[in-house]
Amino acid sequence: MSEFSTSEEVRLVYYRRLLAVVGLLLIGTSYKLWLPQTDYPQVPALSVLVGAPAAIDFVLAVGIFGSLLAWLVAPKRIAPLAAWSAACCLTASCLLDQHRFQPWAYQVIFAAVIIATCEAKLAVRLLRWIVISIYVYSALSKLNTPFMLDEGQTFLNVLLGWVGAKEAFGETTRQALTLLFPLGELTVGVLLAIPRTRKAGVILAAVMHASLLLVVGPLGLNHWPGVLLWNLCFLAQAPLLFWPIAMKEEDETAEPPPAKWRAIGIGMASLVLLLPLLEPAGYCDAWPGWALYASHVSRADLYIDGAAAEALPEKLRPFLIETEWGAYRLDASQWSLHALNVPIYPDDRFQTGVAIAVAQRYGVALFSQLSVQDPADRWRGERTETRYRGPEQMTEATKRFWLNAEPRDRLAR
């Protein structure tokens, strides 16, 4: 009997190899994010890690790369060890810097744990429901006014621009058209959830991700390579997990893992499935809540007085945007893309840490304001903004969060 005898085992071995390859490529395109660096502030998830030495980052980066490589090529009996190693190294590295908790890293962590602890049939079932939930939660996070007015318009402009129809529709029609994006995601999720319609779901998912690749790729918004790689992963993931496979089942089946291991996998899947329910209430960050390309998320901005902005280094000058009242806003999102080749973590807690690091590191805290903006109202699009002036008030702002918002010492001093 072959090492991978059932259809579920075949799916799973190719799926883990897909995740390993994509993980390695994404680590490669964003290598600065995972190594010790001072190009961009780092904000640990826990305050006890603020003073962590840089050597730990390097060790974990090597561990992540080696574990993913082993997970890619290891035989079945060794693959669970590689999966655990990858999940643990990624988790530890993300704790040292919340910026590293990219959606693909989160996916690799929970998938590795589930695959390592559950038999193939159960693992495939759990992974299917998680993928379905990603489409559904992502869609629900966009069915609101902020998306219709912001990110949805950006996507729509690309599509209409290709056919020369940017000015063809009125404002109300344009806002309605933006809802086609989340409704497409929601339709994919529903079709994949029903066994009889899974083929249609896979086909629609392929069309949707291919279209998204065009929109965010070089012909459209020209997003960073990681966005394209993760979309390619979803493009391949749908048929791997959901397309029916005609394969004769063997009489002999592998002995299932011990119940305690299966409980870990089921617990992990339950957490991933249920945690996003807390995102609308503000108790779950956008990315773990699968609020992808959402416009309502919380954020924080640093405003620097005009004269003080001259003290910033040359590398930050391209990311300073002058305001109507003469101060300059630091565009930390664009800075992240240029410095680390990754999108900024979409949360006011992390972005508060970035702002404090810049203000402290370059001695402009006395001449700066921190603007912390709560998530936008989903129907009116309005936000509550709180401003903190000077170093003492900025430090006070970090106390509003459950997790740490202080930057690592070596980057903030």
TrEMBL record:
Q: Which UniProt keywords apply?
A: Membrane, Transmembrane, Transmembrane helix
Spell out where the chain crosses the membrane: 12-34, 54-74, 176-194, 201-221, 227-247, 259-278
Q: Which domain of life is it from?
A: Bacteria
- Span of the signal peptide: none
Q: What is this protein called?
A: Vitamin K-dependent gamma-carboxylase
Q: Which organism is it from?
A: Blastopirellula retiformator
Upper classification of the source organism reads:
Bacteria, Pseudomonadati, Planctomycetota, Planctomycetia, Pirellulales
